């Protein structure tokens, strides 16, 4: 099963379209916040299920949850924007809570910088920002492949030059 992962779209429909094209066929999409309402556009253009969480730029009056737990391919995915877990200073809180929540994968955004890290069997995955990258990175999104043998294959997709 392949899952598209996107974050920090900040209202850019162009970035959403690029991510859809880069990811190819997927079973669903996960949006890790900051302009989570771009998820409705994503669902509209793909006709796929889209799970989303609110980020720090989404406003306190918005109805999206700040944490979501998705079961897919016998894996438990914790989806969060990350701003409530201090991710700009490290992923220690994500590691702690990921273990407490018995997650196999933690997907977050907020930093606008892509990351793939494994620690004690837990995958920490930030797809970067599809619209406003930081830290010298390119606009990116992610692909999460849940393999039949139980392994997880994360991948970062460059939205400017897919061959880079």
Task: Give structural attributes.
about 160 residues; globular; single chain; 10 strands; alpha/beta; 5-stranded mixed β-sheet
Give your account of this protein's structure.
- Helices cover 18% and strands 31% of the residues.
- The protein is of the alpha/beta class.
- The chain has a single domain, classed as Metallo-dependent phosphatases (Purple Acid Phosphatase, chain A, domain 2), CATH 3.60.21.
- The strands form two sheets. The protein has a five-stranded mixed β-sheet, covered by helices on one side. A five-stranded mixed β-sheet has the order 4-5-6-8-7, covered by helices on one side.
- A hairpin with a 5-residue loop joins strand 9 and strand 10 (152-158).
- The protein is globular, with a radius of gyration of 14 Å.
Short description:
Residues 1-146 form the Calcineurin-like phosphoesterase domain. This is Phosphoesterase. The protein has 164 residues and is of the alpha/beta class.
Instruction: Classify the fold: give the CATH topology.
Output: Purple Acid Phosphatase, chain A, domain 2
Tell me the number of structural domains.
1
**Percent of residues in β-strands:** 25-35%
Shape estimate? globular
- What is the element string, with H for helices and E for strands? EHEHEEEHEEEEE
End-to-end gap? 24 Å
Number of strands: 10
Do you know the CATH architecture? Answer: 4-Layer Sandwich
CATH class bucket: Alpha Beta
Mean pLDDT across residues: 92
Total number of helices:
3
Q: What Rg do the Cα atoms give?
A: 14 Å
Structural class: alpha/beta
Low-confidence stretches: none
Biggest sheet details = 5 strands, mixed
Q: How are the strands of the largest sheet arranged?
A: 3-2-1-9-10
CATH superfamily: Metallo-dependent phosphatases
């Amino acid at each position: 099963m392949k899952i598209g992962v996107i974050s920090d779209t900040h209202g850019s429909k162009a970035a959403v379209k690029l991510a859809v094209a880069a990811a190819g066929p997927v079973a669903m999409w996960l949006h890790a916040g900051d302009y989570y309402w771009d998820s409705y556009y994503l669902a509209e253009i793909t006709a796929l299920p889209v799970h989303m969480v609110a980020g720090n730029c989404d406003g306190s009056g918005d109805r999206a949850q700040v944490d979501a737990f998705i079961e897919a391919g016998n894996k438990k995915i914790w989806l969060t924007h990350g701003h409530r877990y201090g991710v700009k200073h490290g992923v220690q809180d994500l590691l702690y809570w990921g273990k407490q929540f018995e997650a196999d994968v933690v997907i977050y955004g907020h930093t606008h910088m892509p990351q793939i890290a494994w620690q004690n069997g837990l995958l920490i995955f930030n797809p970067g920002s599809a619209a406003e990258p930081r830290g010298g990175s390119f606009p990116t999104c992610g692909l999460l492949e849940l393999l039949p043998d139980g392994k997880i294959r994360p991948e970062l997709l460059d939205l400017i030059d897919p061959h880079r």
